[in-house]
Amino acid sequence: MSAINQYIDLYRAHHAIIEQHSRPVINDRRETALNTLLSSCLPRRGDEGYKYTDVNEMFSPDLGVNITRVPFHADVARAFKCDVPNISTSQIIITNDMLQETRGLDMLPDGVTVCTFARAETECPGVLERYYGMIADNGSPAVALNTLLCQDGILIHVARGVHCQRPIQLVNLLAASVPMLVSRRLLIVLEQDAECTLLTCDHTHAQSVASTISQVTEIDLAPGSSLRFYALEESNATTSRISTVQARVDTMARLALSPIILTSGRSRSNINVELNGRQADCRIYGLATTSDTQIADISSTLKHNAPHCTSDQLIKYVADGDSRAAFEGLIRVEYGAHHTEAYQNNRNIVASPTARIHTRPQLEIYCDDVKCSHGAATGMLDADALFYMQSRGIPREQARSMLMQAFMCDILDKVTLEPLRDRLRHLIERRLATMADTDTTADGRALCDRCGAC
User: Fold this and answer.
1) What is the per-residue pLDDT across 15-34, written as a single tens digit (0 to 9) for each?
2) How many CB atoms lie within 10 A of CB 146?
């Protein structure tokens, strides 16, 4: 039985309450979403593109939905782990799917609007009606379920020609005393020649019980605009999260996207980008570290719909323990998209005998005169380098951690904000240092790095 049915029944029984707490434009999109859900099912493990992630299972438990908008206040100081020293950001703090507080929004330049959907009509008239639900694929059951239950969200709008030098930071906190389904929505609109840097951070409060997060981000970049988007996930092992990022990139616009998964329970990230104007550019540089029984899954689809566009993707995984990681990427060059340059690469380290990584890079090219390539490689830590470091007196666990840190360096080098780059380097160093040294037999003897025999 599909998990969708319980949420359809919930909506039908309480649609008046759900719509009472939402703007009319949000309610107008629900009927289309409902029709999608009535004729589809959430993906299961083994379905096309879902090697390890079972989305239906994520939504299957009897999860509560906060349809009456009861406020949940989290201890921000205890849950907020990604403060960046030496960098001043304007912060929006969301607890579950509701605004808890803001910090420093008044320091943003004129022409930059950050507000809830509830205030969007006052702060930025017409933007919500034009873009909300019009970018994300409502034919996707996971997106449709988010659209059906979403009651509010965050709008980030940058007016024409405005360069927002001050980074915006969106902190998402999960605080659940009972199992919950949290539906979050983010809409980012950059007008012509606008520029913005956004950092999103996902954390779970220590006392929270097993819950599921549904997150949809819609991005529209007008000609000549530029968005640098860093998405950091540092949740706990009981949290399931499915995130969809859908972006439209117009002529000479630039999108740089960095998904970084440090800790999670089950995490699925869907990234879909359409390059719709000449000389549009997209860069996706991401990484994930997994241990224990965690699952990290990134799926990307880049569509080159116009000529002279460029894209570059590099995704790296380090999988330890009994964890699972997967990457499925597609570059599609449409008819007439001549002079396209598109590159895709997935590099992975399996750091324990029981970890597994699945990778599937793909190219579809429907025109000539293009430069495209894709590749993937998965292996273990370099045995010779590990032996050399140990021979110089470095303990085995520390040597393994250092090699894994070095493996991730080229991803971090793509972060243009130096304070953020230094902070991420520290977070990754701390994360890799705590990953268990599972490269041993049951009685503690080291496994041979070459053959697996003792």
Assistant:
1) 999 999 999 999 999 999 99
2) 25
Under the phi-then-psi rule, with left for phi > 0, alpha for psi from -120 to 50, and beta for the rest, what region is 321? Answer: left
The answer to the question of residue 398 being in a domain is no
In degrees, rounded to 5, the angle at the alpha carbon of residue 246 between the alpha carbons of residues 242 and 252 is 150
Q: Is residue 438 domain-resident?
A: no
Tokens of 434: 């705590």
- 35-46: buried (b, 16+ CB within 10 Å) or exposed (e) per residue? ebbeebebbeee
How far is CA 63 from each of CA 68, 233, 400, 440, rounded to the nearest angstrom? 15, 22, 40, 39
**Which value, in Å, is the radius of gyration of the alpha carbons in the chain?**
22
The answer to pTM > 0.90 is yes
Q: Is 389 part of any domain?
A: no
Interaxial angle between packed helices 396-412 and 418-434, expressed in degrees from 0 to 180 and rounded to the nearest 10: 150
β-strand 341-350 against 112-116: which pairing, if any? Answer: unpaired
Handedness of CA 79, 82, 85, 91 (dihedral sign): negative
Query: What's CA 359's distance to the chain center, in Å?
Result: 18
Q: Which one-letter DSSP state was computed for residue 56?
A: H
Domain count, the chain: 1
User: CA–CA separation, 185 vs 171, rounded Å?
Assistant: 13
Q: How many residues does the chain have?
A: 454
Residue 451: inside a domain: no
Residue range(s) defining the domain that contains residue 313: 4-380
pLDDT in tens, 35-62: 999 999 999 999 989 999 999 999 998 8
DSSP 93-139: EEETTEEEEEESGGGSPTTEEEEEHHHHHHHSTTHHHHHTTTSS-TT
Strand 341-350's sheet: what is its strand order?
98-103, 90-95, 168-174, 195-204, 226-234, 254-263, 281-290, 310-319, 341-350, 371-379
Look up tokens 């970890």; give the residue: 355
- Low-confidence residues of the chain, pLDDT below 50? 436, 438-454
Separation of alpha carbons 310 and 321, rounded Å: 37
Q: Which is nearest to 44 in space by CA: 36, 35, 56?
A: 56
